[in-house]
Design brief:
Length: about 170
């Protein structure tokens, strides 16, 4: 990485084409990011996601993963299995949650908290409680949204489906 120095002459910027080009590039990147924060998540396909743990490798279908819950250096994948579509299964692997956010963001997943990544296709936003709601084995499960992530992505989040009042608390 090359450092670029811009000199000041009597409190005025000295014209530097590389500096101007860098600033224009930064503006374009910020515009794209702000547009991306208001767009709905992409439609998910039947892509497989390989998870490695002490038992070997397991292929999970991305659209079947509801959320990931991190705890220290392990992550639990909560998903619907092929053999039992009405039951939420859990697969634990020995990596931290940061490992997966970059891989899953483009697939409609969102990191809502330091310990949670949610599949936006399987959760409903409860804006009043600042949490996502999903059903786990017939019970309501609330997944928190940290204030930091809420502030950064509020516009996109408020465009998601809202929780209905008839959803019963567990």
């Amino acid at each position: 990485m090359e450092l670029l120095y811009v000199k000041l002459d009597d409190h005025k910027w000295v014209e530097n084409p590389e500096f101007t080009q860098a600033i224009n590039h930064l503006i374009q990147v910020l515009k794209k990011e702000s547009q991306a924060n208001t767009e709905p998540p992409p439609v998910q396909s039947d892509k497989e996601f390989i998870v490695r743990n002490s038992d070997g490798e397991t292929a999970l279908i991305l659209k079947d993963i509801h959320f990931l819950e991190g705890s220290g250096n392990s992550v639990a994948f909560n998903y619907k299995g092929k053999s039992s579509p009405n039951t939420m299964l859990k697969l634990v692997c020995g990596k931290n949650i940061k490992t997966y956010i970059h891989l899953l963001t483009e697939e409609g997943f969102f990191r809502c908290h330091q310990s949670y990544i949610v599949n936006l296709h399987h959760v409903i936003l409860d804006a009043s409680a600042r949490c996502f709601v999903c059903m786990v084995n017939g019970k309501r499960k609330e997944l928190p949204i940290s204030s930091r992530f809420w502030k950064q992505h509020k516009t996109m989040l408020l465009n998601l489906p809202q929780a209905e009042l008839q959803v019963k608390a567990a």
